[in-house]
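To the team - 2-acetamido-2-deoxy-beta-D-glucopyranose complex, inputs and output below.
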Amino acid sequence: MDDQSFSNSIATFSAKFCNELDKTKSVVSSPLSAEYVLALLALGSIEPTHSELLTALGVRDDDEVRSSFCEISSKIRSIQGVTLNVANRVYIMEGSYELDDNLQKDAVNVFDAGIEKVNFVNSQAAASLINSWVENKTNNRIKNLLTPDSFDENTRMVLVNALYFKGDWDSKFNPELTQDKPFHVNSTTKINIPMMYKEDEFPYAECQGLDSQILIMPYKGKSASMAIILPSQVDGLDNVLTKLAEGFDLMSALKNTFSVKVQVTIPKFKIETEIDLLQVLPKLGITSIFNAQKSGLDNMLKSPEPLYVSKAVQKAFIEVNEEGAEAAAATGAVLMLRSAPLPLSSFVADRPFLYLLLASDNTIIFSGYFQGDSGDTT
Ligand SMILES: *[C@@H]1O[C@H](CO)[C@@H](O)[C@H](O)[C@H]1NC(C)=O
Ligand SMILES: *[C@@H]1O[C@H](CO)[C@@H](O)[C@H](O)[C@H]1NC(C)=O
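Output:
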């Protein structure tokens, strides 16, 4: 699989993922962060779980998982002008428990994962160890990813991914031009929120297929950017999310933009989201790993035990302002032993919209939507 087709697979997964999140409020997520954890589970699974995970990830076989994730990680590491970090870690129960030999090789070689022993019986200390690692990898933006009650003597393993982005706009907004302006929360309600303004040349298009305007604003170094898909209707976001989830070719739409002079008005915003992946992933066809009776996660441990995913969460954060953006996400999955429980154009983003944070080749690193609020936290 070449680079571009894996970027397409990530776009497909991201679209389906985003379409299953809470549509009543603003959201930030990193479907890619979840994919890292799912990919490691795929390499430790047997049929039919194995096929279920590969299908959801949009890859053909284990070798393609390996080559795709090696490539995406090296792409992330080589990005210019901005900070973009990815980190993976495997925590495994103290004592005689070891990762399966093949999985251990993949964890290290493909995912560059650190492997650490932890006593999950001391659940408070285990949570604090894992959460501190996440905080450290996300510039303290993601705290308390996993609660102590996630762990007990039946916990065997925790897989964690952390992604962190910080970049300045290639061309910054002038804070003096930021003003409170109306934002249409829906067709009947307007609120006043701080809107930033600038006039510059940006890749832009009117996309009829999505009945939206598309604007791409680069960060410093020009290999990362933010794409905003702004529906022409105040209540058009749901339609955009549905069309993308149904397979609308967003990658082509992003390519079909042309540099034009644009007067850009977009909100400053800060969003935090917590996602229970036990609710979201089954809607993407991923169910077996959560099945305590028959998860198919047979190749995770050296001395196999019946394991299943008892908990899977993602926390994400984004702040967009005049300088640029900072975004962070962490995904954690807890594996338990079965006996446990279960032209001069105008672009005014004054209505709910979809946003994507893109790395080189338009690889979606973060995605979410803004609806005038600040997500989970307020
Ligand atoms: C993360 O840990 C490293 C090594 O201990 C330290 O140098 C760095 O400042 C930490 N980062 C944060 C954000 O705490
Ligand atoms: C619009 O949003 C406001 C504030 O959230 C809410 O009270 C109202 O019911 C919404 N109206 C419609 C038509 O959804």
